[in-house]
Amino acid sequence: MKTTENKLIAEFMGYKLVKCNDGQAWESPHEKDIDDIFNLHGRLWRENEFYYKWETSWDWLMPVYFQIQNTIAPLMDGTNGEHENSCADMGLAILDDNKEEAIKQAIIAINWYNKQKEPFVSKTNGAKTNGA
Q1: What is d(CA 71, CA 9) in angstroms, rounded to the nearest whole number?
Q2: Residue 22 and residue 62: Cα distance in Å, rounded?
Q3: Is residue 129 very low, low, confident or very high in pLDDT (cuts 50, 70, 90)?
């Protein structure tokens, strides 16, 4: 899996790349009740550790599938594009225990979703809006 694909999934899932003492790490969008630096253990992942998890663990890949089903699949219904079957194809790949194909279909769906959000970028300052 390419670095850009891992980053795409991470950002879709709400992770943010943050600076830390010795470089950068991905910060989980979960466990926001953190009070001090010592409690960050388990919430930050170094890039090389983080990327590895999408490809090796169904525990990390399944939440991506559920997020796609809840967020992207309803928007794709009836669009009649090559991307439309990516949500269903990801589900079939999961049933076949094929992580590589599941990730491929996730990338197709997320790329399509991100392109749909582009019209909501303000033409005046480039800032993303909430679509209002």
Answers
A1: 13
A2: 30
A3: very low
pLDDT attached to residue 4:
82
Residue type for 96, please?
Answer: D
Residue 132 lies in a domain: no
The DSSP 8-state label assigned to residue 46 in this structure reads E
Neighbour tally for 23: CB within 10 Å: 8
Specify the DSSP element, H or E, that contains 115: helix 99-117
Count of domains in the chain? 1
Is the pTM higher than 0.90? no
Which residues are 44's β-sheet partners?
Answer: 27
- Please give the residue range of the domain that contains residue 109: 3-120
pLDDT at 131 over 70: no
Tokens 């967020």 correspond to: 71
Please give the structure tokens belonging to residue 38: 């010592």
